[in-house]
Amino acid sequence: MIYMIVSGEREVLALLSRLDLGNVNFVESPPGDANQSVHIVAGEGLEAYLPLSDMVDISAEVQRLSKRLVKIQAEYDGLMARLSSSSFVEKAPKGIVRGVQEKAAEAEEKLTLTRNRLNFIKSKVLIAN
């Protein structure tokens, strides 16, 4: 179920955005479960609340992201160990060292994005253990 705060022509907006009116509730203020929803501001006078529980299996997503985080962290740690080895940095061709540095930077970015996504889900949804 999608909750929308909107002023203006509701039916026109729903048709234009190809939303099923049966799945859209037009409201004047945020729904009660707004803190467990993704909040989208599409424009002035148009906000949408998409309940996370309707979009994904929260527990499965937390498990998936946690496993991904462990895998990426191990990859990152291995790359950083290679880069911290003075013999590797000194003896390996510069192109190889540069490649490892680029992979480490990519892994670090993936770590940050995955942590942020996991923290967002955990902060927005009460997860039953």
From TrEMBL:
Annotated EC: 6.1.1.9
Alphabetical UniProt keywords: Aminoacyl-tRNA synthetase, ATP-binding, Coiled coil, Ligase, Nucleotide-binding, Protein biosynthesis
Record keywords: Aminoacyl-tRNA synthetase included?
yes
- Coiled-coil stretches noted in the UniProt entry, renumbered to this chain: 55-124
Q: Which top EC class is given?
A: ligase
List the Gene3D superfamilies hit by this protein, alphabetically.
Answer: Valyl-tRNA synthetase, C-terminal domain
Domain Valyl-tRNA synthetase tRNA-binding arm span(s) in chain numbering: 57-121
What the entry lists under Pfam families is as follows: Val_tRNA-synt_C
The name under which this protein is listed is valine--tRNA ligase
Species this chain originates from: Datura stramonium (Jimsonweed)
Q: What is the lineage of its organism?
A: Eukaryota, Viridiplantae, Streptophyta, Embryophyta, Tracheophyta
